[in-house]
Amino acid sequence: MTTQLTVLVAGSTGMLGFKIVSALLDKGNLDIRAMVRSINDSNPENRKKIDVMKALGATIVEGDVMQPETLLPACAGVDVVVSAIGNNNVTVPGQKHLIDAARQQGVKRFIPSDYSVDYRKLDYGDNDNLDMRKEVFEYLQQSGLEYTLVLNGVFMEFITYMPLFDLEHQIFQYWGDGETPLDLTTTDDTAKYVAEAVSDPSLANTALSVAGDTLSSKQLKATYEQATGTKLTEKSLGSIAEMKAWIANKKASASSLEEYVYDQYMYAMVSGKGKLDRIESDRYPHIKPKTVKQFLSA
């Protein structure tokens, strides 16, 4: 008889974390713990999510990644820890604390909060947010914990927020030749793949790379036009080398990360440096990920 796995999800009230909890509960054969900072969260939206997760069968446990002493009881008896902590000032220290607690409590596998392009192929400085993932991954490797990375390119939900689109002026702008393939996946589908990865023994100490669709910048423009009926004017912004120099200048004068980080993500994609290898979107036949056209047409 197979022993039921116990899975702890950190960041369970976040956009992706909540979907991961839901996807894990849909499997029906897992013991799910949703970790929150406070069961009596004063945020109405978080409170609603906590109530929903509890009603669906999750056990709600308290734990704060910036208070390491709270993580040991949260990780007790857990087989797999899934982190869905967002990009903020706790991403690195918080996940390191979570890794430490998981190791001390004998957790078998750790899935870090990646859900991105293949940041392992990028250089430090290419993307400030992905630098944090690189640092956490290096710490995770040194911890001795078994791990699985889930890489999905860029979330489709962010397509129209990409620097490619200037919808106010109906312009599609791109760097390079516009032909480099870009990997995109919805958050719903990413959550489904995470739910499968937690109990897949062949994913030990490796990455699961998935993509609902892979399109070049120019193909993305054409797909957007077909799905929405909106014609966009095409505009070339320059070479990849010029893009890198432009981002460096923008970063030098920026007052916050948000002013340039989306351009850094775009660089990771259109340069080809963050391109996913060995995409296995068909690894679990019951998951039928949405294409960009399906997503935009919904």
TrEMBL record:
Pfam annotation, one family: NmrA
Residue ranges of every copy of the NmrA-like domain listed in the record: 6-247
Gene3D superfamilies named in the record: NAD(P)-binding Rossmann-like Domain, UDP-galactose 4-epimerase, domain 1
Molecular functions (GO terms): oxidoreductase activity
Keywords annotated in UniProt: NADP, Oxidoreductase
Keyword Disulfide bond carried by entry: no
InterPro entries: NAD(P)-bd_dom_sf, NmrA-like, NmrA/Isoflavone_reductase-like
Keyword Iron: no
Protein name: Nucleoside-diphosphate sugar epimerase
